[in-house]
Design goal:
This protein has about 200 residues and is α/β, with parallel strands linked by helices. The protein contains six helices and nine strands; from the N terminus they run βββαβαβαβαβαββα. The chain has a seven-stranded mixed β-sheet with strand order 5-4-1-6-8-7-9, with helices on both faces. A two-stranded antiparallel sheet has the order 2-3.
Length: about 200
């Protein structure tokens, strides 16, 4: 099975906007709904989960009105802690499922890109896949990023096998702005709102 997990438990402190980041509205639609709609359009995804935490209670309330979504309650200690928690959650059922992790603040990663990533993952011999975007994409669109690794920025998307162990990792570079619109600041949101046609 292929499960999508939307990571929506972080504080989102860099956005500096009232309310929780997953339900911050971009073009009148909460960020997390952009992500969920894109995942729903990906035919390879069997089921969608959202990982929330005590940091995002309003996001949890918002999700209660959306059909077909299952919520996983994490502690919200850190991204890596929550990721480990989610891996444990799925490992109890099977160690052979595919988990597509995506952050709740990536509104423009459309269904076509999701399918492309999953298709690539199906061809790799590695258990884990990390997605990167060339730093030039961020610079071209004047977008912020936390750090780069040899000129590549992590896109906030990873694919793993459902086992909580260190997994051998492959890397996929996708030079598309869709993956660079990680809404971390109000400036990012302002720029993103002008380029909704990216979807």
């Amino acid at each position: 099975m292929i499960y999508a997990i939307v990571m929506a438990g972080g504080l989102g402190s860099r956005l500096k906007a009232p309310g929780e980041k997953p339900i911050y509205k971009l073009n009148d639609i909460p960020l997390i709904e952009h992500v969920l709609n894109n995942l729903k359009g990906a035919t390879s995804i069997d089921k969608i989960f959202v990982a929330i935490s005590p940091n995002t209670p309003d996001t949890g309330s918002h999700l209660s009105s959306i059909e077909g979504i299952e919520v996983i309650d994490t502690l919200g200690v850190s991204y890596m802690y929550d990721l480990s928690f989610v891996l444990d959650y799925f490992e109890k059922e099977s160690k052979e499922d595919t988990l597509f992790f995506i952050n709740a603040d990536l509104p423009y990663i459309n269904s076509e890109i999701i399918e492309y990533i999953l298709q690539y993952y199906s061809t790799t011999s590695k258990d884990s896949l990390a997605i990167y975007v060339p730093i030039e994409i961020y610079q071209e669109w004047d977008l912020t990023y936390s750090y780069d690794y040899n000129g590549l920025v992590p896109a906030g998307v990873n694919v793993l096998r459902s086992e909580n162990i260190v997994q051998d990792q492959d890397e996929l570079i996708i030079p598309k702005p869709h993956l660079a619109f990680n809404i971390n600041t109000l400036q990012d949101a302002k720029i993103a709102s002008r380029f909704k046609d990216l979807k």
